[in-house]
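[worker-b] picked up task from shared queue
[worker-b] task type: protein-ligand structure
[worker-b] ligand name resolved to zinc ion; SMILES cross-checked against name lookup, match
[worker-b] sequence length check passed
[worker-b] input payload:
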Amino acid sequence: MIENTKPVLLSVLAHPDDETFGMGGTLALYARRGVAVHLVCATRGEAGDVDEPYLQGYYSIAERREAELRCAAMKLGLAGVHFLEYRDSGMPGTPDNQHPQALIVAPLDEVAAKIAHTIRELRPQVVLTFDPIGGYKHPDHIAIHNATVRAFELAGRGEYQDGLDPYQPEKLYFYVMPKGILRFAVRLMPLLGRDPHHFGRNGDVDLAALIEEGDFPIHAVVDYRPVAEAKDDAALCHASQLGGVSLRRGPMRWAQALMGKKEYFMRAYPLPKNGHREQDLFAGISLVNGAIASSARE
Ligand SMILES: [Zn+2]
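[worker-b] inference finished, payload out:
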């Protein structure tokens, strides 16, 4: 069996900017620590709102957003970006949902097979994706969550053949928004003249409703202070999605202050045995002669 020469982390997400605004600190931190951090991005964010000035010099929203993603990938120190070549499905009830190339139209098995193939190629020890409600119930986030969970298991199966050797990553994490922080934000927003039922650039995210959704346990907290600037720089790459909003003041700053330069994860595999919280997603995976060897599986 071939050992990786470098630890590998794979993040599987849906749109350009998911990698930065969610778990960007974590990705930058592991890249800084010498891990080969790869990103699978299912779409090019075709359904995102992009103001005309941001399209100057680009043929399409997809081209602009891919350029923004490549800029962010460089700031975060990613080793590679891999597109699944689906189309952004947009928010529920929009015509983008019906597009034949839309991610949510693709069969789950097809999407999972593509991700499993990438897992076998890259051989990551750790895989990250969205939580079961995709953070804020974006249909693409939920589709990618489901496909990644299936792919994680599929990649290690000996009888599943796709021309590559079976490979089982050691750990699977879901990025989660702690409900305590969400509850606090929803209480605070009206005091700041903001409506928690219409959050986000397009006002289509109902934060208050999310409090009632699945409360996912937090098994790992990653403090990304050493690379906080890299995350901010990556966010600036996504100018078309910021709507002229500064990261250093206004709602983005406020959201960041609440999260405290920490990112939170639920460990889906292996399921933790006790209430112990990890601070390192590679805990329990040890380096031997510059290569990773699996150690005490919990
Ligand atoms: Zn997204």
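[worker-b] attaching auto-annotations
[worker-b] The pocket of zinc ion is lined by residues 14-15, 18, 138, 141 (CB under 6 Å).
[worker-b] releasing lock
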